[in-house]
Amino acid sequence: MRTRIAIRLHTLLERYFPERRVFLKSDNDTRFIRLRPHSQLLAFLGASSIVAWAIIATAILLMDSIGSGNFREQAKRDQRTYEYRLNDLADERDKRAEEALAAQERFNSALEQISLMQSELLASETRRREMETGIEVIQTTLRRAMNERDAAREQAVELALAMEDSGAAPGTSGAEGDGTIDFLAAALQDTAEERDRIQRDAQDALVQADDMALQIALMRDQNDQIFSQLEDAMTISVEPLDKMFRAAGMDTDKILDSVRRGYSGQGGPLTPLSVSTRGQEPSSDALRANRILDQMDQLNLYRIAAQKAPFAIPVQDSFRYTSGFGMRWGRMHKGTDFAAPHGTPIYSTADGIVVHAGWLSGYGRLVKIQHEFGIETRYAHLSKITVREGQRVSRGQRIGDMGNTGRSTGTHLHYEVRVGGKAVNPMIYIKAANDVF
Fold first, then answer.
1. DSSP string, 60-102
2. Cβ burial 118-137 (10 Å sphere, 16+ → b, else e)
3. Could you give the CA distance from residue 112 to residue 106 in angstroms, rounded to a whole number?
4. Rounded to whole angstroms, how far apart are CA atoms 315 and 322?
């Protein structure tokens, strides 16, 4: 049975792979190699396997190359898109910085104008009081002159009566009568001159009173214009600051009371100002002036409070946001990350006192600053610290350089804001100040 199967298989192979002989001839001899059907089958299968393996390997390499090329192209496209986005964000940030600078310049200009108007207001109020005092003096002088005129008239009448009596009295000598007449005539002439002088003085006093009344009316119009400009300037200046604090979730009444308590008794711009009314009922201008002065005092309080809250940005050079506040990789990220070149200056975002300046676990080199209103800021992963613990710093003061210390995957600043020990989103304060600073 096996022999019969072998014969059939050999016959089948003979049909496709007939026996072949390969002759090898040399100078002295001729030899040949017999290639049987099964040997040819084995050679064919081996060659086919090699060719198939080469085809499959080449296809795999080609597919991998094509796939890698597509992945690299996609990565390049994503990188270009990301770079374009970063450039757009940088341009947007620069525009916001320019707008903030322009707003700051407008704010400073408004404050200068307000200060000038305040000086003009106080000077005009002083002049007005002086003119009112002058009018009272003129009126007193006028009344005295009129009284003197009436007295002079009565005296002239009495002298005239005395002259008549002297001229009609019997037994009077001619010389004594002439002397008495001359004396009475001289007295009448002096009285008439005094009366004329008093009348002229009275007329002059009336003219001066009219002039002063006109000047007071003009000054009141000017004061009204100054008041209106000051009220508009106060509205323009105070409302953005109030809106900024409220956008940051801060109670403005408590903030202003805290600042006022901290500066009570120290004088300076926070000393209450008022227009004297000399014990009388205050006029409408005095009340209006006091309201404006109260608003200016409030504006000063807002400005001081704004320096003590972290409304500034800790990085003033070019940077990019790399991570925001919130959950990240299953963990709470308690701050905002700013990426920039190694050594970029880092600045305090508000006035305060340095409570920590050194290494702290995963923060690396860390600076903590305690501010007013229970606010604390943290600046982590620094390469260099330029302040010491216990030092008082101002807003915009350099406190260190950006680095990669601690638990960090690259050069950046980790910036935190804590209120009452609880971390809050720093962008709340930064965005709230975009339209003010």
1. HHHHHHHHHHHHHHHHHHHHHHHHHHHHHHHHHHHHHHHHHHH
2. beebeebbeebeebeeebee
3. 10
4. 13
For residue 428, the SS3 value is helix
Beta pairing class for 364-370 and 375-385: antiparallel
Residue 346: other Cβ atoms inside 10 A: 28
Where do the H-state alpha helices sit in 169-318? 174-247, 252-262, 284-308
Rounded distance between C-alpha atoms, residue 385 and residue 398, angstroms: 9
Q: What angle do CA 338, 340, 341 make, to 5 degrees?
A: 150
Angle among Cα 106, 108, 112 to the nearest 5 degrees reads 115
Q: How far apart are CA 426 and CA 312, in angstroms?
A: 10
SS3 356: strand
Closest CA to 347 of 414, 396, 307: 396
pLDDT tens by residue, 137-185: 777 777 777 777 677 777 767 766 766 665 544 444 445 555 555 655 6
Closest to 351 in 3D by CA, of 259, 282, 434: 259
Token output for 419: 């209120």
- Torsion, Cα 126 131 137 139, to 10 degrees, reads -150
Q: Is the pTM of this model over 0.85?
A: no
Say how many CA atoms lie within 13 Å of 150 toward its Cβ.
5
Structure tokens at 338: 């700013």
Strands 326-328 and 30-35: unpaired
CA distance 300 to 279: 29
Q: Exposed, middle or buried: residue 208 (CB in 10 Å: 0-12, 13-18, 19+)?
A: middle
Report angle CA 237, 242, 244 to the nearest 5 degrees: 100
Alpha-carbon distances, residue 146 vs 131, 136, 197, 206, 298 (angstroms): 22, 15, 11, 12, 52
Give the gyration radius of the chain's Cα atoms. 52
Query: Tens digit of pLDDT for each residue in 98-137?
Result: 877 777 777 777 677 777 777 777 777 777 777 777 777 7
Helix-then-strand count for the chain, H and E:
6, 14
Nearest to residue 324, comparing CAs of 424, 400, 434?
A: 424
The model's pLDDT over 256-289, given as tens digits with 9 standing for 90+, comes to 777 777 665 444 444 444 444 455 666 666 666 7
Hey, what amino acid is at 261?
R
